[in-house]
Amino acid sequence: MNNLNIFVQKLRESGLRPTRQRLKIAEVLFSPEKTFHFTINDLSKIIEEKLSQKISLATIYNTVDAFKKKGHLKEISINSDKSYFDTNITEHHHFFDEDTNELIDCSSDDIDSVNVKKNITGKKIKSVEVLIKVATDNQTQK
């Protein structure tokens, strides 16, 4: 199956018609050899730079949201107004560099297993993913 067919399939699985703009979004998201993290604004800039094409933020947001709901992307909320999306949908941990606003994959080998001592009644834990926020230590800069 060629890439175009894969993109069309992902769009249709996500309940979207495979329009030219949505196919461009899928191309940017699912063509790279390695996974990556992005915000909606990041993705808009990447599409403009790589494809010399302007796609509305609403189209990008709606397409990303549909891919997320179908499980093709993972959302990582940094705080109440900042979310990143990850093309790597496997369970893994992240560092968030507050100085550069960069989200970085963290190997599971770098973190011991997390021991959850209490759960919410009537709920089952689906996964445990750690977000470690880092920033420059002002003490070491002196």
Please characterize this protein's 3D structure.
There is one protein chain. The chain has 2 domains: 3-84, Winged helix-like DNA-binding domain superfamily/Winged helix DNA-binding domain (Arc Repressor Mutant, subunit A); 91-141, no CATH class. 37% of the residues lie in helices and 19% in strands. The chain has 5 helices and 6 strands. The chain has helices at residues 3-13, 20-30, 40-51, 57-70, 138-141, and strands spanning 37-38, 74-79, 82-86, 93-97, 102-106, 131-134. The strands form 2 sheets. The chain has a 3-stranded antiparallel beta sheet. It has a 3-stranded mixed beta sheet with strand order 5-4-6, with no helix packed on it. It is globular. The mean pLDDT is 91.
Itemize the secondary structure elements and their pairings.
Blueprint (H helix, E strand, L loop, with lengths): L2 H11 L6 H11 L6 E2 L1 H12 L5 H14 L3 E6 L2 E5 L6 E5 L4 E5 L24 E4 L3 H4 L1
Parallel strand pairs: 4-6
Antiparallel strand pairs: 1-3, 2-3, 4-5
Helix pairs in contact: 1-2, 3-4
Question: Which labels suit this protein?
Answer:
Arc Repressor Mutant, subunit A, three-stranded mixed β-sheet, 142 residues, 5 helices, 2 domains, 6 strands, globular
Distance between the termini: 56 Å
Radius of gyration: 18 Å
Listing every helix as H and every strand as E from the N terminus to the C terminus, the arrangement reads: HHEHHEEEEEH
CATH level-four homologous superfamily name of the largest domain:
Winged helix-like DNA-binding domain superfamily/Winged helix DNA-binding domain
In the predicted model, the low-confidence regions spanning at least 5 consecutive residues are none
Report the CATH C-level class of the largest domain: Mainly Alpha
